[in-house]
Amino acid sequence: MTPQAQVGSVTGIAGATGGLGGFVPPLVMGAIWREVLVRDT
Q1: Which residues of the chain fall short of a pLDDT of 50?
Q2: How far is 1 from 13, CA to CA, in rounded Å?
Q3: Terminal alpha carbon distance of the chain
Q4: CA-to-CA distance for 26 and 8, rounded, in angstroms?
């Protein structure tokens, strides 16, 4: 069996990565779209 502390830390890292993956890309896409729209007008 795997040590419980190791499983918990891996689960925490995976969860944090998933949370950032859902938060950061929309911010980046919004910044890109803003630059594109500002340059076009």
Answers
A1: none
A2: 20
A3: 61
A4: 28
